[in-house]
Amino acid sequence: MGPDPELVDDCVHCGFCLPTCPTYVLWGEEMDSPRGRIHLMQQHVEGAPLTDAMVGHWDACLGCMACVTACPSGVRYDRLIQQTRAEVEAEHERPRSERALRRLIFSVFPYPRRLRVLAGPLRLAQRTGLDRAVRRTGLLDRVAPSLAAMERLAPRLTKPEPLPARAPAAGVRRATVGLLTGCVQGAFFPGVNAATVRVLQAEGCDVVIPPEQGCCGALSAHSGREAEAQGFARAVVDAFASAEVDYVVVNAAGCGSVMKEYAELLGPEAQAFQDKVRDIAELLDELGPVATRHPLEMSVAYHDACHLGHAQGVRVQPRRLLTAIPGLELREIAESELCCGSAGIYNLLNPEPARELGDRKAANIVATGADVLVTANPGCLMQVAAAIEGADHPMRLAHTVEVLDASIRGYRLD
């Protein structure tokens, strides 16, 4: 248990990670950089006890993996922070209020049915304006900042879009694809899942959606709750076991990143499943287009979700798909390697630094002058939407697959 000493020793403390680390960029504090956190891991490996200060520096990490991309020595910081957090969860006693908040988060967010139940009253509050009235009072910000962050981040909910258990390919079938519908994606962004199914059908895929699927385990794995993550992961593997699919497609970056590590989480028996996992942009690029793209006359700023760009290395594919749409102009965002501050549940546990990072990201997005912000993760969509709204700069936001769906169907992107 705890960080692997051999992985710790891989770090030569060169500092290439520093300018890519969001918390180091914000605070300039060595212990809130990847090499500083690894130094603390080394101290712990050598016998130093877990202290509140030590744990605080690890908790402040967003787990964005920008340092993994930047590291010339191939340090597996992703494995190290996950191992360290697992030991923290097992051995360290957090304050009562923090334990209560974490219990609340993990009793709701990894459960799609519970999220859908929560979506009902939230949709009503948005329709009646109660959510805005509560926000204007500032009461939640003063009494419960994390709950205030939850309310502020909640997207404008649309009508649920039920999905079939199986959707046939349009034209010649090129592949059979299983779709992970996700927790937050399914409850708060049902339109993304519906667009994913339509695009896959248009590109010649039969789409299978096992109704018994649940959480993939990403939130738990990234928070050090290893046994919980393993339980969720096994259930997902079992749900797709009888589906006989060529690929398992994911349209949420955080989910895809952990599913591509199921063999590490569950053991070699999960390797065959892991090998089938693809991000939606990755698969569409791999298959190549067959559906006609209609023009979309607009400019798009593309935001690399950290767990898509840094963790999965999927950067070129979504850009290639977007630039293939006639009339669409792609614009790059400054400081693209810096996290937006969402990072799973980071913006709920650490609302202030998350808001600073969100505001910074929003300013860089607005500076592009683009009509639409496009990204591939529900957490990023919520975080950036809240930041852009706070900047009083109205802007459309969309998932990559929603833009493709609009082009293929010949619809204007709303």
UniProtKB/TrEMBL annotation:
It is an enzyme of class 1 (oxidoreductase). It catalyses: glycolate + A = glyoxylate + AH2; (R)-lactate + A = pyruvate + AH2. GO terms for molecular function: 4 iron, 4 sulfur cluster binding; glycolate dehydrogenase activity; metal ion binding. Its cofactor is [4Fe-4S] cluster. Binds 2 [4Fe-4S] clusters. Residues 3-31, 51-75 form the 4Fe-4S ferredoxin-type domain. Its EC number is 1.1.99.14. It comes from the Bacteria. Keywords: 4Fe-4S, Electron transport, Iron, Iron-sulfur, Metal-binding, Repeat, Transport. Signal peptide: none annotated. Gene3D superfamilies: Alpha-helical ferredoxin (1.10.1060.10). PANTHER family: GLYCOLATE OXIDASE IRON-SULFUR SUBUNIT. Component of a complex that catalyzes the oxidation of glycolate to glyoxylate. This is Glycolate oxidase iron-sulfur subunit. It comes from Nocardioides agri.
